[in-house]
Amino acid sequence: MIKAGIIGATGYAGAEAARLLKGHPEAEVIWYGSRSYIGQPYADVYGNMRNIAEDNCKGEDMAELAEEADVIFTATPQGFCASHINKEILSKTKVIDLSADFRFRDVDVYEQWYGIKHAAPELLPEAVYGLCELYRDQIRKTSLVANPGCYTTCSILSLYPLVKEKLVIPETIIIDAKSGTSGAGRGAKTDNLFCEVNENIKAYSPATHRHTPEIEEHLSAAAGKPVMVNFTPHLVPMNRGILVTAYASLAEGAAQEQIADAYQAYYGSETFIRLLKPGICAQTKWVEGSNYTDIGFTVDKRTGRVIVMAALDNLVKGAAGAAVQNMNILFGLPENCGLDLYPAFP
């Protein structure tokens, strides 16, 4: 059995990781790390885990946990993992970090967009971006996985084949994204109160959202040149889900059949990507509680643009599910091990 520890187990992403790992046939959770609930039963924090996870919450000592765990999940705010990790820890265990600390190759980009000094830039070359469908070969060889963000996973997966195959003009990409409120975390914030969110939809951080450079880095790698996108996120009154609607001008000669062929070539054999039939638009309800990403597209011949629609569960494929999928790759397990989660509907 893989011994797994979770630091940040009482946040939404950490709690989702705990739920998934408790159902994993090859893993056991040995550590529920929390800053606020040390010594308290985990099931008192999350009542859904009553009679399932009766362990008490422990602290956030990564060095101590590395002596016991085969893999550590850090579902923590930006800066925590980089401040506590070191080469000695990585020599003893594998780390899957759900924050942005190791997602960028360029430390200056991280510091500019996140506004904090990176505490372990020397480890950046060892980290692998944990978007399994694109980088699984590199993930197998590392001990430090930078788990992608939810907006970024949905945005990159939806556009990568089209950019890579030069079927769209990258400079024209516009990404309109919408998220459920769990994506903002469990911390008490006025903007996330029921009365603020219910019966409301709002854009936030237009042109400045910190997932923008993450999307640009990987679409640039696909394009073979620098790519900048317009990315605007929105908060919608639902618990879970990401819906991305992306727009791009078609490259000369690109047609619907070529686009369909590109998606099929890149994702046709992927367990967790479902390609939708023409005319079918992705819906968050179709992926809720699962590790799937649904992707569909429409070609607008009138404007010469393609409209790509993609949906995923921000806490599963957008966070904890991807982390467990990365764990499976690291330990040579089938990627769907413990992740055969059928979407709940309604």
Topology at a glance:
Elements: E1 2-7, H1 12-22, E2 27-33, H2 42-45, H3 62-66, E3 71-74, H4 80-84, H5 87-92, E4 94-97, H6 107-114, E5 128-129, H7 132-139, E6 144-146, H8 150-164, E7 174-179, H9 194-197, E8 202-203, H10 212-223, E9 230-235, E10 242-249, H11 256-267, E11 273-275, E12 293-300, E13 305-312, H12 316-330
Parallel strand pairs: 1-2, 1-3, 3-4, 4-6, 5-6, 7-9, 11-12
Antiparallel strand pairs: 7-10, 8-9, 10-13, 12-13
Helix pairs in contact: 1-12, 8-10
Q: Would you give an account of this structure?
A:
The protein has 346 residues and is of the alpha/beta class. The chain folds into two domains: 2-126, NAD(P)-binding Rossmann-like Domain (Rossmann fold), CATH 3.40.50.720; 151-314, Dihydrodipicolinate Reductase, domain 2 (2-Layer Sandwich), CATH 3.30.360. The chain contains twelve helices and 13 strands. It has helices at 12-22, 42-45, 62-66, 80-84, 87-92, 107-114, 132-139, 150-164, 194-197, 212-223, 256-267, 316-330; strands at residues 2-7, 27-33, 71-74, 94-97, 128-129, 144-146, 174-179, 202-203, 230-235, 242-249, 273-275, 293-300, 305-312. The strands form two sheets. The protein has a seven-stranded mixed beta sheet. Strands 2-1-3-4-6-5 form a six-stranded parallel beta sheet. α1 crosses α12 (316-330) and α8 (150-164) packs parallel to α10. The longest helix has 15 residues, at 150-164. The chain is globular. The mean pLDDT is 96.
